[in-house]
Every structure is written in C-alpha cells, then in structure tokens.
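SUBJECT: protein chain
CONTENTS: sequence, structure tokens:
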Amino acid sequence: MPALAIVAADSAGSGSSMSWLVYLLFLVAGLMVGGTWSMYQAGNKVLTIVFALIAAVSLVGAILWLIGVMS
C-alpha cells in the first residue's frame, strides 16, 4: 500500500512528471554493481571498470535528479 501512496502523491503534481527516471537510474546502478561484481569474479578487468563507471554515473545521476525533483 505505501507504493500506491507514493504513486498517488507523485501523480498529484507535486513533483516532476519524469520522476520515474530516478527509479530507472537506481535500477541501472544496481544492475551495473551486480555486473561489476560478476566481471571482477570472472577476472575481466576491462568490463569491471566499464561496469563500475556506468554504475557510478547512474548513481550520481539518480541522486542529483532526486535532489532536483525534491526542491
């Protein structure tokens, strides 16, 4: 039920209509962290660095977008 309250509050016009992108960026960051760990365990250094960079950029983007949506 709390998820419905968040959606209802968000659709009421209090935030940006693009706030779903924050959730998408957090999702991408989480998936990339998992991919980073998998590539690290496999010994692939290049993909470990690439996935880590993508995870960091998407996490920072999500946090900055969240701060922008909240203010």
Remarks:
- The chain has three helices and no strands.
- The helical segments are 2-14, 20-42, 45-70.
